[in-house]
Amino acid sequence: MHARKDNLPASILASIRNRKRRLDATHPEINARAEGTLIASYNVHKGVGNDRRFDPERTSRVIHEIDADVIALQEADTRFGERTGILDLARLERETGLLPVPVSGMAKAHGWHGNVVLFKKGLVRDVHQINLPGLEPRGALVAELELERGGALRIIAAHFGLLRHSRAQQVKVLVELMADKSDTPTILLGDLNEWRLGDRSSLHTFQSIFGPQPAAVPSFPARLPVLALDRIMSNRKGVVSAVRAHDTPLARVASDHLPIKAIVTLDQT
């Protein structure tokens, strides 16, 4: 018999060991800014931190820290009743230059099923709001952007369901969406709620569009991340640099997920 390459206990132990090294280190990534287009994904947990406090100001400060050119947020709206956005987007724009991709039919919500895409200095070519199948109300926001820094890019921002069967259905919808558009540089990012790796993963079907899944980066739970629920992947090899967690003292408490981020370089396409 061959040893499994996706051994979860081993990955958990490795994450704990790496976590100790990260906790002992400083955090130069707060001030350092790599060249290229920085893209990020962050489940903000409706502004509720690990201390159970609702503090959207703290959430905004983490977004400041990341300093992304494009960032996808999940759970940026209240979930039940009339969805209402939790962030002060006007202030965030003034302080960071981040603009929300517009969505239709949502009077008080920031985004679509809690998914928000914010970007700096560019134009929105097109937007599609996708309902995803499953027992829970879930969606994906597809935005085609022309970035002043980085060129043309399609973003698919999604938040998948908690049930494996639902996630498998949701993957199929996005694969079908991409079937006739594989020529466009596309980044899929969000909280995909899948900790399994390899063939057992409900995300396995993505390989037909995005190729082999990139290395999983633990992002959940934020205080001691062992599960790679959040993902960033591209349909073009070499476009996305190594994905890493934005692991800072503030990010560890502001949400139950750590943000993840990567550099996108479109001139390699």
What sequence of helices (H) and strands (E) makes up the elements?
HEHEHEEEEEHEHEEHE
Structural class: alpha+beta
Supply the number of helical segments: 6
Strand arrangement, largest sheet? 3-4-2-1-11-10
Strand content: 25-35%
Instruction: State the end-to-end CA separation.
Output: 40 Å
The average pLDDT is 86
Number of domains: 1
Fold and architecture overview:
This protein is of the alpha+beta class and 269 residues long. The chain has one domain (37-268): Deoxyribonuclease I, Chain A (4-Layer Sandwich), CATH 3.60.10.10. 23% of the residues lie in helices and 25% in strands. It contains 6 helices and 11 strands. It has helices at 8-24, 56-66, 89-96, 164-178, 207-210, 249-254; strands at residues 37-43, 70-74, 98-100, 116-120, 122-132, 138-147, 151-159, 186-191, 230-234, 244-245, 260-264. Strand 5 (122-132) and strand 6 form a beta hairpin.
Keywords:
single chain, 269 residues, alpha+beta, Deoxyribonuclease I, Chain A, five-stranded mixed beta sheet, 6 helices, disordered N terminus
Strands, helices and their partners?
Blueprint (H helix, E strand, L loop, with lengths): L7 H17 L12 E7 L12 H11 L3 E5 L14 H8 L1 E3 L15 E5 L1 E11 L5 E10 L3 E9 L4 H15 L7 E6 L15 H4 L19 E5 L9 E2 L3 H6 L5 E5 L5
Parallel strand pairs: 1-2, 7-8
Antiparallel strand pairs: 1-11, 2-4, 3-4, 5-6, 6-7, 8-9, 10-11
